[in-house]
Amino acid sequence: MNLQIFLTTFSVVTLLNLASALESDGASSTVAQPLAPVNQISRFQLSDKLSYLGLAGLTQNTPVLHSGEFQQQDRTIITQVPRAMGKQMVWVEMSNYWIEPITPPSGRGDLLVVPMTDMRVAEIQGEVTLLEDIKPPAKSKPIEVNQGLEVPDQATLSTSATGSVAVMVGGHTSIRLVPNSRAQFHYDVSSETPLLEVKILRGAAFCKIGQIPSGRFPDVAVHGQVGSLATMGSCDFFVQSDPVSLHVCLVRGRLLLGDAIPFAVGNMDWYPADVEANSTTGPQIRHWPHSTVGTDQMDARLLNFALRQADELNVKIKALLEPVAILSSDDQTYLAHIPRITWYEQAIIAP
């Protein structure tokens, strides 16, 4: 072999081996590896596994792709790839809007005006029925609801598999039922502080608790088939009820969670679970009865379900985000006040 060719080949192999060794050594010393620019695009797609709010307990060499490096398209394209690509799992940081408020941006729809003493229907999608609370032996017949319909005290609202509905309470609070849900509403304004009691008999709801004109906050209790919660001031949360447990994703505010709850919730210092979420803590997920077994899986299932429902119901947000939409200052202010949820999904290299 020609000596010059041999020396050139030897140098190239040596440099490649050295680079590989340095890369391997650098990879093992970091938790979230840096991304390496590449000349060609690399294609990833989301796996079918559950998503998580956080990634506690990451193993070494687990790369995380951050927002802007991942696009959800027919074929997902990432222009930067982790150094350990093909050897380790890859997590993708995702972000989306939480559930939109009932009130539309200025000029984008009619504002639903609800007196302090009333409960009114809003945001109707699909089939929704109302059943009044009638004393036996009389029987109540389901009523098909329409926008602005007053909800009688102790009435029950039901949504079909394709239906959803919101109840605006006193102009300060909204309870939005997702598909396949049923809930009973009791509203008492006989005292200075309004009292709202919601019994979720099936399914789930998005709840936004606001302030009344006097500056006070209503006392709100939400009962599941098992477990109850009380709100402490203004808050924004998703609650799901099933026959054996109650699940909550709190985005903003403070909740008290436990077994049984009195209708008046003024002093709840003794309550079993006290949960708070803000910009520092991020969203908080809790389950009742409390369990330390399989919590990650329960968290992920609740998060997936809530995010899917929010995406389906956010009609106003989708209209504002249309490519042809021109956003006014009111539109931008509206979007800026809607919380965003950041979570993580596992990705795999697309074929």
**Average pLDDT for all residues:** 80
Q: For the record, give the distance between the C-alpha atoms at the N and C termini, rounded to a whole number.
A: 41 Å
**What's the total count of β strands?**
19
Q: What is the CATH class name of the largest domain?
A: Mainly Beta
Compressed to H and E, one letter per element, the order equals HEEEEEEEEEEEEEEEEEEHHHE
Considering DSSP H and I runs of 4 or more, what fraction of the residues is helical?
10-25%
Number of domains: 2
Number of helices: 4
SSE layout and pairing:
Layout: H1 3-27, E1 35-46, E2 64-65, E3 77-82, E4 90-97, E5 119-125, E6 128-131, E7 143-144, E8 156-159, E9 164-169, E10 173-177, E11 182-188, E12 195-209, E13 219-223, E14 228-231, E15 235-242, E16 245-258, E17 273-277, E18 284-288, H2 295-313, H3 315-320, H4 329-336, E19 340-349
Parallel strand pairs: 2-4, 12-13
Antiparallel strand pairs: 1-3, 1-19, 4-19, 5-9, 6-7, 6-8, 8-11, 9-10, 10-12, 11-12, 12-15, 13-14, 14-16, 15-16, 16-17, 16-18
